[in-house]
Amino acid sequence: MAAQTNFIDIATIWLHAGKGGDGAVSFHREKFVAAGGPDGGDGGRGGDIIFVADDHLSTLMDFRYKRKYVAGNGVDGQGGRKSGKDGESLTIRVPRGTLIRDAETGEIIKDMSDKEPFILCKGGRGGWGNQHFATPTRQVPRFAKAGLPGESHDVILELKLLADVGLVGFPNVGKSTLLSVVSKAHPKIANYHFTTLYPNLGVVYVDDGVSFVMADIPGIIEGASEGAGLGHDFLRHIDRCRLLVHLVDVSGSEGRDPVADFDAINDELKNYSPELARRPQIVVGNKTDLLQDPEQLDALKKHVEEAGYTFLEMSAATHQGTRELVQTIGRMLSQLPPVVVYEPEYVPRPPEVDTSQPLTIHVEDNTWLVEGPWLQRLMANINFSDYESRMYFDKMLRQSGLFDRLEQMGIQDGDIVSMYNLEFEYQH
After folding, report:
1. pTM score
2. What percent of the chain is helix, strand and coil (3-state, nearest 5)?
């Protein structure tokens, strides 16, 4: 049976940015002023959903029970040209190295590996108050615009640790002991399998100004790439590692064959990711202080070196060979490319809307006011500065039969069509 762990490194959540506040319909009222003009203020903008990488977090546990995140709505406008207050943005903190994926396609939206905040869902624009709609021929506009809805998104959060070096090997081979010896990390250490139930990170100092991050990955077992043990859950955490340190127990204390163990772990790496199997690797024969059969050590060294890997002997418990290992890692890292940062794959797609639902149309002073839920959703996702986006918007309006309805209702060339925060002159 697979080992149980409370470590959470993948979660699915739903995000919804705030709705923009509605614009106000208001007219200036002042003693001794016969005809005050329109002074309805604009609605406030809806709050954004913002992601920030936090180095103090190491798990996605916070998202295990809370799956819905909503930012604040903008406040409606008021008379006296008073704009409503913007909605409060919602900041979501995640461990550094978290990938944000689109829940439907699995495409990467953002790799949260830097310190820059990332706005995933933008709040809706506030609606205009009637002060914006006064013209020489429309001096008393008795309408304002509703605020637009904020963007929403279903996403998958996937934690992939940011570490230079990943420790791999069967359970109980000494990975946690090594990490505790060469860094200030304090992983749980005991002489039984699966002591480590979640990845541990430690900073290892080589020389002045030279250091690297090492990750202790829970022990991999045969079948890990297919979900056995803890391996399937944690193999993703060595995806970014520039260098793998493969620990093999050469003591014979558990009656295991070091050569077979070495081959089995590399087979699991290959099954999980062929690219990961090609990652530079240092193989370490550990627990030499408990060595029972020196021929096992010699056989492993010969087998590893014939495979083209660097081989070192070590006893993490007695610190023998640990300094040499750290220096070897430092030299190899200086020649390797930096930690992988994943490029975004996600391309925003036009929203799917049901244009069969009729829109509401009414006329004010030769201004045709067009409103409706699907139009509101559509406009919230249209970039009107982009030509293709504008063409898609026009296509959806024609598909809905809106222009045919306007002509049947008697619209004339030059009349104003007003849709939320958009106005244009109608031309047949």
Report:
1. 0.76
2. 25, 25, 50
